[in-house]
Design goal:
The structure is a homotetramer of 371-residue chains. Chain A is of the alpha/beta class. Chain A folds into two domains: 121 residues, Aspartate Aminotransferase, domain 1 (Alpha-Beta Complex), CATH 3.90.1150; 239 residues, 3-Layer(aba) Sandwich (Aspartate Aminotransferase, domain 2). Chain A contains 16 helices and eleven strands. Chain A has a seven-stranded mixed sheet with strand order 1-7-6-5-4-2-3, with helices on both faces. Chain A has a four-stranded antiparallel sheet with strand order 8-9-11-10, with helices on one face. In chain A, α4 packs parallel to α13. The radius of gyration of chain A is 21 Å and the shape is globular. Chains in contact: A-B, A-C, A-D, B-C, B-D, C-D. Chains C and D meet through α1, α2, α3, α4 and β1 of C and α1, α2, α3, α4 and β1 of D.
Chain lengths: 371, 371, 371, 371
């Protein structure tokens, strides 16, 4: 069985060409200066291991203030870790997680929800812009008959904010989903891989986007927005926190040198770094959106609300971009057309954005004449 | 239910006093300069995420040279991750792992082997200095009747090098265990949390300590010896590597910004950093051992072969040390006596070691007179 | 949370009315005389427990002759047991099972495949009459990129013969699916809950329907066709059999008084009982089908090939049937119409079938006039 | 890898000699007449499947009266099923079950507790006659620090009544264990494979031996005492019952033709059949015990309290018994001596017991002279 490029690279050197796309993912960005400084600052002297250090002791205070409520914070190193851990804490082995069929937990986390729950299942819903609707949630609960042993036990819902289409749930939408879920005995998980971008875009507070909207547990992403390898599972429920403690250790996330994780997570909140970085990334996306909107035959598959763009490009424009050095990442947006995903980051270079805009402008003006 | 200190700290601030012991653990040491420089050096520009970056591409070459054989390298962030992942790759849900009852995987990894194997079990053996013997392994295999469905399927053995008592398996001992294991169809795992210290102490090559001695898969530790949060699961078997690829992702260890993990793992080998650091830690331990051996009524529970000391101290000596600022960590060494564990590190301060020696010398000379 | 009728009945008495439908399920039939006699016959004297008895020793010979090949036979008590066990033996915790979205393993086995595989996932395909097509299987394998660690490892396909729509895969269709599966490294499972009915309907041999068509492992149903509580997981692959041995015991299916299971399974083959019973059930279905086809406005959702009928009935006919004592079981056949499922059995009473036919005939002749 | 006798028999015919021991196990006995009659009696007409039948509806009433309390009854086909299911309902994947190291769940259930709990672990205690003591339980809980995430979460204790040594916990002992367990947040499971024998031997009521002594859930055995393949998991806690409902289905124990299971379980209580049979088996054991006690050099490893005898026999006596046709089953009772286990049953033949007594008597009188 042939291993695909990615895995081959991971497994052995020279196994593949490394594809380099531009504006490919915020995961490709380096660590921002403020975070790296915090990491360096904590790199002196000995500290007690396994989270009993002074930085880690400050996590709950810092995040408690951020969320305006007592918060139980569990650092993890990846988003897949975080989602798996969070879902595992609220889903028994015989439970299901209701979510959108395009959720990252469904499509590209290698079965982490099944692994962490010990054999749970995801019940997949459809919905525009990767959002699940109250109606579809209610229908799913009706269909799977809470308490019918021939089915599994509906135990949790998972929503992504912003969704994998870069679109926001409004606070009211979240609250309504939570209410339906809670009424049926389900817990509510929020995958916040890009929660900073969602927060600055929506203007709501961290509290409003989470526990005030009924969220019981969330995966709080920071890596895509400037840190090195720090995400956090955060819950507001002491009962869930107790379970998390065991799962977190058991899955190997109780870092011996925890201080380096905590330094990142604290620095992320310091001076509103999360806001500064997210604003920049979103702003970059808005510039690219504006430039593309000036071009004929460009069509957006989803509204641009955070730092992601999902767009159909005419062949001549994508070729021009490529000639100017932009290797954009193809993305299956359906309809058999040439879809692309662009993800902007806090650290995109101004000259690159300018060059992208210029290319679009040239195309736009030539289109006026030629197309 | 009251949460213990450690967990309380992790969960919420102010929950506990942070105990600070001296010479407590090599996990308390900071990141050494060479590794931190490597991390800083790779912190520029965008890179492809999820391990398809240039640094990660170099891992297998570097470790292949280190082990003198094609090596499949899977970076993880903690030793518990690493052990769980490695054991999960060679133990089916209905399988058992034969190991010493004092193994770290048994005592303090929160059930990671059961989690990662999906329901396996550890068969516990006894043995001096936390080593398992050929005889006890053979007896266990005889007793559990390979292939008897009333029992589970003996699938793997796990040995720790050096053991949790800081003692080395000789190469011949490892080979003999592997041979017995392989003959019965079991795979061999080596927990190398302190493998650098073991290598420099024993003088054997990485190849001799692993695959030449029959090891199929190992957890290669670097965090205790100078890195930040980088361990690696390494196998020499392509079949195991294929399984590892899926488990590694599924458990959340395919870091989006993998370059920072790979930078650490590469730097660890660079200029034999692993050797330099391990030699220093072992040498520090030897100095402390020598100092203690000059004292009356001091007794070692295990021979000192790496950077760990397990020692019974007379009350007057431990008091003297405490008065001189050394809060040593009590350790249950049995017999109802005052046992202590000291772990030396690559970065122990020379003046502290000197002060420890001085305290011992004072005690020793006063003992000559008084005791 | 309110428990639904079924569970409530199971949990506590008086919790619900017991709904009684007619021609509801072949699971409602009693044990046929030949099987019960075999059970009684073996009920004397002591026997060695846990499968080491003389009847069990004969299972492989009997089924080996039936399948014309060495067969490894594992008795289980329910179809869900059987499917879970079979899938668990060929699906690792990180593996997926490709199957039709309407498969019994998906809809009404409570998550047994996830439980038995230790965290696997089912990849759901669509297809007419609950059959999966070669094209859809190939697309699924292409999409999930065998070996892409971001996904799970496609490990098995599961087909149901006859499908949940009572429709048969032709031998050529099965072979083609198996070939695609095997080429991609997947194993092939066949859920044969009604395999007897499928065999007599298709006229192919047990060998042709299973291993000659590439089936690696099957759940062989007998309970619906005249036994008490005996199904068997049967594989032709010694490697799979070894795994099965452990899973079978571990899941609790190694019956202490195995002789009573084996007596049923042996009796089922004796004098071609399986054939006699299945022919009768299929024949009953054909009579009902013929009667319904004489009625105006009756429409079949699926062709009737075994002992199951899926049919849309005009309101006036369903009312007439009800008045004549036939409470038919509503079944969601889509389109918002009045669908019903009828399942005929080896022991349907001749007078009941006759009465059903009479009711249809009356309706048909009145329709001629009135509709 | 060679498959052992038992598995080989199960897997393929002719693979082994079938060993026949006498007084080997109560699992070797046939189904008693009253139970078989009940099975035959329910074998007419159609019934609703999956437990929604009239017999199953009566289970809770019958067992509720038996236990003098509302009882939630889940039929299963084997004791391993039952124990796994019961433990799975009270042990999360990160939990431990504290039990005696010789428990059947530890030694010969193929890892069912790990399977059903989804990765739990058993914490093994020692104790005379296979009983765990309050002191050892308290020490285990102290050592594993409830709530210490480096360990797993102590979640349940499991006691066997009578123990695998055939010895009874007194009611006071059970209560004390339960109190310690409950105080620490653990649930209490009782493995009642031979609970009938324990009840008649102790003279306490079913209520006194279970919920009045703090038992939350039990595996209620009937197969060893006269039924065919019917055990029941019984809990008095509606919360546990809800979880059981899902696990019971998921693991494949919701029998389609449930009536045959329920008929056995009801018949077992009818006319105090359980008592009659257990009294007979215990009485048979007492006769054998008395006969052996008359013989010189016979030593009992455990007191004989139910229908099991664990005894060291002098070589000359075991030879005499063998010559008279009694092939007794060797049993490792330690000390390197010739240990044997004899298990008496409700249906042992009077003439066999007589012959055994005669053999003993002959040996006894000859010993008087010769030894």
């Amino acid at each position: 069985m042939r291993l695909p490029n990615m895995a081959a690279v991971l497994l052995r050197p020279g196994g593949s060409e490394i594809a380099t796309y531009h504006f490919n993912s915020d995961n490709g960005a380096p660590v921002c200066d403020q975070v790296m400084s915090a990491v360096l600052r904590c790199n002196q002297g000995t500290e007690t291991a396994y989270g009993a250090d002074h930085l880690t002791a400050g996590l709950s205070t810092a995040y408690g203030e951020f969320f305006e409520r007592e918060s139980f914070v569990f650092p993890v190193a990846t988003g897949t870790d975080g989602n798996g851990l969070a879902l595992g804490a609220i889903t028994p082995p015989y439970g299901t997680i209701v979510c959108h069929e395009s959720s990252h937990i469904v499509t590209t986390e290698g079965g982490a929800p099944e692994f962490y729950s010990g054999g749970g299942r995801m019940t997949l819903l459809q919905g525009e812009h990767n959002k699940i609707s109250s109606a579809s949630l209610e229908e799913a609960l009706r269909k799977h008959g809470i308490g019918n042993v021939h089915h599994m036990a509906a135990s949790a819902i998972s929503v992504t904010q912003a969704t994998e289409a870069g679109v926001l749930y409004e606070t009211g939408e979240l609250s309504e989903l939570s209410e339906i879920a809670h009424r049926a005995g389900l817990k509510v998980h929020l995958d916040g891989a890009r929660i900073s971008n969602a927060l600055v875009s929506s203007g709501v507070t961290p509290a409003e986007m989470t526990w005030k909207a009924g969220v019981d547990i969330l995966t709080f992403g920071t890596t895509k927005n400037g840190t090195m390898n720090a995400e956090a599972v955060i819950t507001f429920d002491p009962g869930i926190a107790r379970v998390l403690g065991f799962l977190h250790k058991r899955a190997g996330h109780l870092f011996s040198k925890m201080r380096y994780m905590s330094a990142q997570l604290l620095s992320f909140l310091d001076n509103d770094l999360w806001r500064t970085n997210a604003l920049q990334a979103n702003k970059n996306a808005a510039r690219i959106e504006a430039a593309l909107k000036r071009c004929a035959c460009v069509e957006f598959a989803h509204p641009v609300q955070i730092n992601e763009l999902f767009v159909f490009l005419p062949r001549r424009l994508s070729e021009s971009l490529r000639q100017r050095g932009f290797h954009l990442r193809p993305w299956d947006l359906g309809e058999g057309r040439d879809g692309f995903r662009l993800v902007m980051s806090y650290c995109d270079k101004a000259e690159e954005i300018q060059r992208f805009e210029d290319t679009c402008n040239e195309y736009a003006s030539s289109s006026d004449v030629a197309d």
